[in-house]
Amino acid sequence: MDSELIALSESLGAACRQRRLLLATAESCTGGWAAQVITHTAGSSEWFERGFVTYANEAKVEMLGVRPETLQEFGAVSQETAAEMAVGALKNSKAMFSLAITGIAGPTGGSPGKPVGTVCFAWCRAGTFPGTEVKVFAGDREAVRRQAVIHALRGLLLRLDIA
After folding, report:
1. CA 139 to CA 26: how far, in whole Å?
2. CATH at 49
3. Which of 24, 99, 137, 143 could pair covalently with 117 via S-S, beta carbons 3.0-4.6 A apart?
4. Is a pLDDT exceeding 70 seen at residue 162?
């Protein structure tokens, strides 16, 4: 793990401990990488409650309660799906804050409307509506996934500062 990811893990740990918050993650294209970064810091069990890796649409429905209609209408890579993933992570955990990541890491799977590198994010605090964002990252599969993890964790830190 490189120094940028380690620093994010340590910053998140400090922020969550200070606020006495538990986190949950819901990941698709990153395959648990955000949870891996979070748990790199010793003592993360004090602030990281659980992570969901829901790569298949069926897993998103079964484990997180994403509505099949959402997947049908907007697709797995959409702000709507990311929002439902973040809400589902909270509903199916004891966490107070969640993040969700779903996207197209490549090298295939893109379309004109959603090119390879498209990643949708959601962050949600219990009892509130999730905030969402879409980014398009450049690079190969590994680069897209790494950038997505960094963006998701930085976004979480920003939201913890205002929460």
Report:
1. 23
2. 3.90.950.20
3. 137
4. no
